[in-house]
Structure formats: structure tokens, C-alpha cells
Write a structure and sequence with these properties.
This protein is an alpha/beta fold and 429 residues long. It folds into 2 domains: 272 residues, Type I PLP-dependent aspartate aminotransferase-like (Major domain) (Aspartate Aminotransferase, domain 2, 3-Layer(aba) Sandwich); 136 residues, Aspartate Aminotransferase, domain 1, CATH 3.90.1150. Helices cover 37% and strands 15% of the residues. It is built from 17 helices and 16 strands. Strands 1-9-8-7-4-2-3 form a 7-stranded mixed β-sheet, with helices on both faces. A 5-stranded mixed β-sheet has the order 12-13-16-15-14. A hairpin with a 4-residue loop joins strand 5 and strand 6. Helix 13 crosses helix 17 and helix 15 crosses helix 17. It is globular, with a radius of gyration of 22 Å. It binds pyridoxal-5'-phosphate (PLP). Pyridoxal-5'-phosphate binds next to helix 4 and helix 5.
Length: 429
């Protein structure tokens, strides 16, 4: 099919990027489990290596199964191109890599996945990069944190774990004014609930490990490019605007236009960093995405029921679900994610840390795991696990205080989930 804008999301999530296999007619996208591809002749090989012709060389760079997924993700997010990577964390590095250099920094929201806080506050320092964390509800603080060396602004659409919703349009305005790209981690929302590019994002990153695959079988990530950023408007992004010595002085932006970031991601990023998604993982993810909208609707419907019920339970101090009228972020749902606030939120227990530990140990349907976005309902006590590396101050800022449990609502029967939670809450008193 042609992936025209006339097709709706439910159609594109099944068909975008996937064509019957030209060799066999296979209707499902085959797993092209191959490392290399035969060149037609020496001239063809030279053209591929010079980026004069697009084609398959070696699966660290490109693979047909992975390419189908890239096209599907670019389509669903409304971007021009995408680069799949081995994990969500790999996608974050791949998004930053063409923009950054030693001495450069990013400005990021305090409300992020715990692993991202660690990656940005610790690990990227080894590359000479740094990150300033600020409260993204305070636009003046975001503006003040941006300096001449800032190369990107980074936030999550619906932030893990708190269910906090970022005012993407406002943040995109600040990034625009500073002439730098906005990168949005859209993992917790998925493109079904939120399309950050429509709110001004330049790049969108995902952990495909979560809702996109949707069943806890894959580790994967992706960077999607809106194709809208002018990399040559300043001298801030020489990897994209200036001559690249490894390709005989080729200038990515001048040569590939809106596809500059995507081509750089494959021809330099995957080639040299090697954080490649394998074809089997791409296949599982393609299968998962076929039912994304159906699952997200059920995640939202269940989360609304369960969060409303939890709010009335006397062992529960607070519920952060933005879909609740009581949430300070409820107003942003209609603007940022009008189909619902997702399936992820936290609860604070009156009994504190001890109660949280007993609560997670007494659940039956819910599994205590470091994952989210599965068809199965999951919980985690963030303070003792994913956010353990952070100080209590950082934990509180990230919405993962010691008395807080993160809940990822699955697609089971809502009444069964409520009964399970009730049993465990009563046992935890
Ligand atoms: C899980 C997660 C990541 C990291 O993804 P991996 O696939 O585990 O590397 C990044 N951001 C968010 C919001 C996540 O939930």
C-alpha cells in the first residue's frame, strides 16, 4: 500500500512499512536473518558505500525487517525517517550523538525515567557532555538553563513514573527561540496517545521494549526525525551541516535535506556505535504494533477505573494518574494526549516504605518487575529498585519517593485488578 495521509492510525499500524515480500509474496514481514547482501557488481558496491545509492550492505547498518519497522514508526509518529536501535537507552544516545560534542550540554526535565536520569547525570560525562535538570513547568527556569553550549532540550511526553504530562507546545517554543531541537521520549504515551511532532518536537525517542512491542519480549529503541529542523541555520550542528571527512567531505544536511538526521544515524551512528536492533526483535515489535491502538484503549480504560477506585481507598494517600480530575495535569490531557493519559501512574501509601514493600509482595495478578507497558499488570517500588541510584531529593523530584509504588495497568479485567489490589493493600496495613 502507499502510506498516504488519508489512512487512519489503525490502518497504518498494520500496513505502514510492510509490503508483501517481493521474492515469495509472504504477507507477514519476514525475519531477514542475514548479515550481508550481495552487491550486483563492483560499481553498485561503490555507490552504496558512497551513499549515492540506498540499499543493503551489512545488517549493522540496514536490514529489511528493521527497515519495515523504521518506516512504520516514522509514519505513526508523523516523521520523515527513523533509526531503530538496540534499546531505549541506545536510542537516547543515538538521538544526542549527531548534536553533541565535548563541552556541550542538554537541558532536561527532572521528571524522567530513573535510568535516563542516571544516563544523563553520570554516564554522558564520559563523552564530555553534561545535562542540567530543571522543572519543565517553570518555563523561565528552562530558558535560564539554556546557554551557548546547549544542543538539545529533552523531556518525556507522559513522564515515567509519575504520570506527569509535559506542556510540549510551551517547551517547543522555548527550544525554537534558542535555535535548538526538542527531543521527546514518547515511551509512556506511544504514538497512539500522543504525537510529539505535532506539538513541535524535532526528534522523538522510544523504548520499544514497552507499549510498542507490548508483551515483554523485546528490548529495542527508535529515534524518529520530524525532518523539520534547519541544521544549517547556525554553526551549532557541524556533524549535520559541515563536511564529513569519513564520506569524502559530504555534507549531510545539504545532500539529504530533511533526511539528514536519519542518514547520519545510519551511516555514522549505527556504523560506528553499533547499537543496532536485530531483525528478530524488529519482527516481534512489528507484530506488537499491529494491535497498539486496541491495547492502548484498554490500558486507558482499565487505568481510569483502577485509579478512580484507588483514590477512594483509605490506605492510599495519593494517586498521580493524570486522567483523574484531581490531578494538576488533568487539563493537559485534552491538549497533549486527548485519547487518554496512558496506563502508568504511581500511588503513595499512608504506611510509607514498609507498607509499599508488603504491598508489592502480596499482589497476585500484578508482577513485581522492572518493566512497564506490558499486557500484564506490573508494579515496582521505584525507590528500592529503578530509582535506587538517585538521592531521596532526586527520587522525590522524579515522582518516586520512598512511599511511592509505580503501577503499569495491563489489559486484564479491571475488576480482577481491583480485587487483587484491594487484597494486597489490606495485607500491607
Ligand atoms: C524503559 C524506558 C527507557 C529505557 O528503555 P530501554 O529499552 O529499557 O533501554 C527510556 N525511557 C523511558 C520512559 C522508559 O520507560
Amino acid at each position: 500500500m502507499t502510506d498516504g495521509p488519508e489512512y487512519g492510525f489503525d490502518t497504518l499500524q498494520i500496513h505502514a512499512g510492510a509490503r508483501p515480500d517481493p521474492a515469495t509474496g509472504a504477507r507477514q514481514t519476514p525475519i531477514y536473518q542475514t548479515t550481508a547482501y550481495v552487491f550486483r557488481d563492483a560499481e553498485h558496491a561503490a555507490a552504496l558505500f558512497n551513499l549515492q545509492e540506498v540499499g543493503y550492505i551489512y545488517s549493522r547498518l540496514t536490514n529489511p525487517t528493521v527497515a519495515a519497522l523504521q518506516e512504520r514508526m516514522a509514519t505513526l509518529e508523523g516523521g520523515v525517517g527513523a533509526v531503530c536501535c538496540s534499546s531505549g537507552h541506545a536510542a537516547q544516545i543515538m538521538a544526542l550523538f549527531p548534536l553533541m560534542g565535548p563541552g556541550k550540554n542538554i537541558v532536561a526535565s527532572t521528571r524522567l525515567y530513573g535510568g535516563t536520569v542516571t544516563q544523563f547525570s553520570q554516564t554522558i560525562k564520559r563523552f564530555g557532555w553534561s545535562c542540567t535538570f530543571v522543572d519543565f513547568d517553570d518555563l523561565d527556569a528552562v530558558k535560564a538553563a539554556i546557554d551557548d553550549d546547549t544542543r538539545a532540550v529533552f523531556c518525556e511526553s507522559i513522564a515515567n513514573p509519575g504520570g506527569y504530562i509535559t506542556d510540549l507546545d510551551a517547551i517547543a517554543g522555548v527550544a525554537d527561540e534558542a535555535g535548538i531541537p526538542l527531543i521527546v521520549d514518547n515511551t509512556s504515551a506511544s504514538p497512539y496517545l500522543c504525537r510529539p511532532i505535532e506539538h513541535g518536537a524535532t526528534l522523538v525517542v522510544h523504548s520499544m521494549t514497552k507499549y510498542l512491542t507490548g508483551n515483554g519480549t523485546v528490548t529495542g529503541g527508535v529515534v524518529i526525525d520530524s525532518g523539520k529542523f534547519d541544521w544549517s541555520a547556525s554553526d551549532k550542528f557541524p556533524s549535520l551541516s559541515a563536511a564529513e571527512p569519513a564520506y569524502h567531505g559530504l555534507k549531510f544536511h545539504e545532500t539529504f535535506g530533511p533526511l539528514a538526521f536519519t542518514f547520519h544515524g545510519i551511516a555514522i551512528g549505527l556504523r560506528d556505535l553499533g547499537m543496532t536492533l536485530n531483525p528478530q526483535a524488529a519482527h516481534y515489535t512489528l507484530m506488537g504494533i499491529e494491535t497498539l491502538s486496541l491495547r492502548m484503549q484498554k490500558h486507558v480504560e482499565n487505568a481510569e477505573k483502577v485509579a478512580s477506585w484507588l483514590e477512594t481507598h483509605d490506605a492510599v494517600e495519593a494517586v498521580t494518574y493524570a486522567g483523574l480530575k484531581s490531578s494538576p495535569y488533568n487539563k493537559r490531557v485534552s491538549k497533549i494526549c486527548p485519547k487518554g493519559a496512558g496506563g502508568l501512574f504511581t500511588i503513595a501509601l499512608k504506611g510509607g516504605y514498609e507498607s509499599c514493600v508488603k504491598f508489592v509482595d502480596n499482589l497476585e495478578i500484578f508482577s513485581h518487575v522492572a518493566n512497564l507497558g506490558d499486557t500484564r499488570s506490573l508494579v515496582i517500588h521505584s525507590a528500592s529498585t529503578t530509582h535506587r541510584q538517585l538521592t531521596v531529593e532526586q527520587q522525590v523530584a522524579a515522582g518516586a519517593a520512598p512511599n511511592v509504588v509505580r503501577i503499569s495497568i495491563g489489559t486484564e479485567e479491571a475488576d480482577d485488578l481491583i480485587a487483587d489490589l484491594d487484597r494486597a493493600l489490606n495485607a500491607a496495613r
